[in-house]
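This part of the workshop introduces the protein records we will be handling. A learned vocabulary of local backbone shapes supplies the integers on the structure line. Getting from the letters to the tokens is the skill we practise here. As an example, a complete record with its sequence and its structure tokens follows.
=====
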Amino acid sequence: MKRDEILFKSIFESAVEGLIICNNEGEILMANKRAEILFGYQEDELVGQKIEILVPDDLKSIHKVHRKEYAKAPTQRMMGANIDLFGKRKDGSTFPIEISLNHSVVKGQPLVVSFIIDITARKKMEKDLEKNRNRLEKYSIELEERVRERTLELERSNMNLLASQRLFRTIAKNFPNGTINVIDKNFNYIFVEGKELKAKGINSKDLIGKPYVHNNEDSELEQKLNDAFIGQNSTHEVISGTEHYMIYIVPLPSNHNTDIERILIVEKNITKQKNAEENIRSALKKERELNELKSRFVSMASHEFRTPLSTILSSASLLDKYFEVGNLEKKDKHISKIKSSVNNLINLLNDFLSLDKIEEGVITPSFHEFNLKKLIEEIIEELSDSLKPGQDIIFKYSYNEHVILDKQLVKNIFINLISNAIKYSNAEKPIHVSVYKENSLIIFEVSDEGIGIPKDDMEHLFGRFFRAHNATNIEGTGLGLNIVKKYVEMMGGQISCVSEEGFGTTFKIFLNEKVKEELS
């Protein structure tokens, strides 16, 4: 029990989000270091306070109402779906936050778990993005106005047309991040200049007389060009490879009649703005995925931890009894149960922590030479206590003992696959572990004669939190195979699975071993 408390406290205190646990009366029972830093409190200063101490003064009353409503029907959810939320620091200042709520029951007491994230930086990015959008719109309006002014000036300055054309060409040639184009009714270039041409290595003279739109490649753009010849202004966004362009289309009135013979097309490269928008969207998506992952873990942990913790508690109680009567055989049996339950808890925590590190990009492969055969033998020895009565691990090794791979990733892969084989196989059933060479690849193979995987579940096998229909009554997180696949792919390999429900499962991992020259 002490080890479990240490594990829980370690996870609680090392979380990158603020974590606060309250009872239904809003009293703060626990707050991790991150929460104390976010709100400006010293260690344990929040414990015993009402949660409303962290709520802005003008919202305290309504927050109490919402808290009581939540206590009546607690659910896992995000707070403030369409509104901005703010937290109040000890010094009275406020800052924007995002909160996800979960609930649990510990020793009969309902608890509310809050994940709190400071989103000040995100709000600043959103504000900057809005400012850039407004600036681009302003530039567009200013540019259109300048074009109109320039057209009027040309009409008033027939006598100075040649000089005006030279000036216009100079301006257009230096037009930043885009081009200025004029086309005729056949959609052929009669003028084109801009710094974008130089960036692409195109000579403007080579485009004169060539079609602006090729073979109806963009029917929407072609329609807007036609509309321009009847006097309509428009804009159009184009994606060319990895580049994004905003196109402004403006009719050019003729000097001699009302017919429009030419139209002006201004192309502006907006790739940087688009990439900035995409980066912000990706960051927000990543943040939401991490919040969802942690919320699902809290929900899963509250369910999966219950069985091993109950086993530990009952076995510990019985140990006292058997020590008194000197029944060593039953004492050893319950010590084994406690060890098994603790290992289950450790595996659950390791699965989540490994996935968390992968999602945050903390884990990167590090290739070194090591004795693979010895490593697998040590893993088998380490897992021997988990074997069911009559189970045996048959190990065959037909490869060089020393390999160049990521030792820690390989160890985690074998521990996960062999542990699964033990878990999902009945007593008296053998487990086979093999390493051999096939063509130029090194093959890891782990097979069992266990419950197998239903055919309909195979396509989801490596999904996060997925558990096969015939395994829901067996302890597990649904994260193990997802993590194994990610580890294999980090080393440039592939993983396959062949299984038949009721007859067993075989996993194969295919890796290219590094050579010493690649490490130097």
The first helix runs from residue 2 to 14. The domain at 18-123 is CATH 3.30.450.20 (Beta-Lactamase). The chain has four domains: 18-123, 172-272, 276-343, 364-512. The two ends are 48 Å apart (CA to CA).
